[in-house]
């Protein structure tokens, strides 16, 4: 369950698809740590639900600066 904010965004998007009956665990961002690789942060409403972003795509923006800071090793493959 230790996924990035990017993985969490995909889980939220997939959970909204018609006929999708087995969503993955989607913890709020503050359960995993103080920083997340996407914004806005995923948070629960007082009712225990997650508001699904209505903007195009996943509705979350990748925070590239954090991913670069956390990267330990990088491979670049060229065709």
Strand element count: 2
Q: Please list the strands of the largest sheet in the order they lie side by side.
A: 1-2
Query: Averaged pLDDT, please?
Result: 77
What is the CA–CA distance across the termini? Answer: 33 Å
Which strand-content bin applies to the residues?
5-15%
Contiguous runs where pLDDT drops below 50 for at least 5 residues: none
Order of helices and strands: HHEEH
Largest sheet: 2 strands, antiparallel
Q: Over all CA atoms, what is the radius of gyration?
A: 14 Å
Estimated helix fraction: 25-40%
Structural class of the helices, strands and pairings? mainly alpha
Number of helices: 3
Shape: globular
Describe the 3D structure:
With about 80 residues, this protein is mainly α. The protein is about 30% helix and about 5% strand. The protein has helices at about 5-15, 30, 65-70; strands spanning about 40, 60. The chain has a two-stranded antiparallel ribbon. The longest helix is centred in the first third of the chain and has 11 residues, at about 5-15. The chain starts with a helix and ends in a 9-residue tail after the last helix. The model has no long low-confidence stretch (mean pLDDT about 75).
